[in-house]
Amino acid sequence: MLTEEGCLARRQRLWNSIPEIADWVLVADPRHVQYLANFWVEPLSFSGFERGLLLLERSGRATLLADNFALRSAAHEPYIDREIVEEWYDHKHSVRNRDHALIAAVRRIADELRERPGLIEAEWLPVSAWMALDVQRESYAEREADHSQDNGNDELDLGTILRRLRRHKEPDEIELLKQCMRAGDAGQARLREVVRPGVSEHEVYCEVQKAALLEAGRPALVYGDFRGTSPEVPKAGGLPTDHVLAAGELFILDYSIVLDGYRSDFTNTLAVGKPTDPQVMLFELCEAAMRAGEEVLTAGAAARDVYASVSRPFEDAGYPPLPHHAGHGIGLAHPEPPILVPESDDELVAGDVVTLEPGIYQAGIGGMRIEHNYLITNDGYERLSNHDISLT
Predict the structure, then answer these.
(1) Domain limits of the chain?
(2) pLDDT number for residue 151
(3) Is 21 exposed, middle or buried (0-12, 13-18, 19+ CB in 10 A)?
(4) Would you state the pLDDT for residue 47?
(5) What is the pLDDT at residue 146?
(6) What confidence score (pLDDT) does residue 375 get?
(7) Is the pTM of this model over 0.90?
């Protein structure tokens, strides 16, 4: 889980990123509440997809706003100074609209904020919560935020600031991502034991998921591509179907394990039975593309240049450019910046966690993709995923 030290460090980076005139911020995106306070409603619970709000004040105080059942469904103890909890269900009375309980919690802090300038995460804060807050609409910070959004300047756009800050991962985030990687590695290892002709995609999914969850040691979300490809259908993706694998096909496992909102995302392709010579040749091209991408992975590298490096081995062999991104950032979302594509304006920064995922899909042969995850540093990278990449 995230640490208190990490959450405090992220809060300080947030305050360093916004003008001093803002005395408070109201964080509404559940991912950002987790990012700053370690409050994550367990998605595999009866309160799954509910949320809380986080009020941060420049004085250092952190206040969590939530209904009583969302609070009791938290995955971990949040790092806060105060709770504003609105009762929603008491096992005695009928329940009201659950969203209205969260709005009522907002109404309880309105008097504290009314005369103080602050910022709200407008993309996620409900209109009814904004109205309940009833702060001065013409406060300096809000007026400047309106001006910034109208003119394409995100200096006071709280949601954009937080997304930008997320790129630099603190040590607790890296450790959580490594837990995701270890679970993903276990699933990839199990794949090798179960892929064979006569097994369905869904059966593979069940075995991979079980191995990953056993390694994680707790419930987790598992999603991704669990699909077979063939000379006739070289491109397939998404959750598994009842398709039964046959000799000569390829199986792509490109999947993520999600723990406390953070995720891994890496890939290998296995031959179902003995691979053909053309399949081996294409796989070797994917490996060459990954090595080429690794050679340019470092802070300061242009995302478009990384894409060009990954795509070059395919083009040099006479194939079209890589047909999808060469990789992307991961963390609390998938994908997130930087995006490694031909016309990207992104630049890699120290603290990014990114993927490299070359792939090629050829009618008459099949489709394949491989992928590793990397922490970007000032002098290169640290590879975080450790699964075996090979066709057999």
Answers:
(1) 4-165, 171-383
(2) 45
(3) middle
(4) 94
(5) 54
(6) 98
(7) yes
Please give the average pLDDT of every successive group of 10 residues along the chain, which has 392 residues.
98 96 96 98 94 97 97 96 96 94 95 93 94 65 49 73 97 98 98 98 98 97 97 96 97 97 97 97 98 98 98 98 97 96 97 98 97 97 97 96
Phi-psi region of 387 (alpha: psi -120 to 50; beta: other; left: phi over 0): beta
Q: What is the mean pLDDT of the chain?
A: 94
HEC secondary structure over the chain: CCCHHHHHHHHHHHHHHCCCCCCEEEECCHHHHHHHHCCCECCCCCCCCCCCEEEEECCCCEEEEEEHHHHHCECCCCCCCEEEEECCCCCCCCCCCHHHHHHHHHHCCHHHHCCCCEEECCCCCCHHHHHHHCCCCCCHHHHHHHHHHHCCCCCCCHHHHHHHHCCCCCHHHHHHHHHHHHHHHHHHHHHHHHCCCCCEHHHHHHHHHHHHHHHHCCCCEEEEEEEEECCCCCCCCCCCCCCECCCCCEEEEEEEEEECCEECCEEEEEECCCCCHHHHHHHHHHHHHHHHHHCCCCCCCEHHHHHHHHHHHHHHCCCCCCCCCCEEECCCCCCEEEEECCCCCCECCCCCEEEECCEEEECCCEEEECEEEEEEECCEEEECCCCCCCCC
Rounded to the nearest angstrom, the gap between the alpha carbon of residue 257 and the centroid of all alpha carbons in its chain is: 10
pLDDT for the residue numbered 138: 43
CATH match of 171-383 with 3.90.230.10: yes
d(CA 210, CA 128): 42
Architecture of 4-165 per CATH?
3-Layer(aba) Sandwich (3.40)
The phi and psi torsions of 46 (rounded to 5 degrees) equal: -70, -15
Structure confidence at residue 153 (pLDDT): 54
Is the separation of the CB atoms in 63 and 95 below 8 Å?
no
Q: Is the bond preceding residue 337 a cis peptide, omega within 30 degrees? A: no
Give the pLDDT of residue 154.
60
